[in-house]
Write a structure and sequence with these properties.
single chain, alpha+beta, 4-stranded mixed β-sheet, 1 helix
Length: about 90
């Protein structure tokens, strides 16, 4: 984890959303990477696909950018839109 990263993305909640803060202010809940990129854009921060892996910009708590949905990394990727999994029975 990068100390002082302006963006923090917290572990997935039971509904799959991840709380996002920018410079300590709660900016909303992201349900996929596009939501995170939109929060970055709104805050005037870089919005490129490489920014998600930049530890100086984003501190991913509990799970990295590939995990969305109620399952944490210990159980495998969640079924959120960013995981690429098909949750259709």
């Amino acid at each position: 984890m990068a100390k002082g990263a302006p963006v923090s993305v917290y572990p997935p909640s039971p509904d799959g959303g991840r709380r996002v803060t920018i410079r300590g202010a709660d900016v909303g809940t992201a349900y996929n990477l596009l939501d995170v990129l939109e929060f970055l854009h709104t805050a005037g921060l870089p919005k490129t696909d490489t920014t998600i892996d930049d530890p100086e910009l984003i501190d991913w708590h509990g799970a990295g950018p590939d995990y969305w949905g109620p399952d944490g990394p210990e159980n495998g990727p969640g079924d959120g839109p960013a995981s690429g999994s098909d949750s259709t029975p």
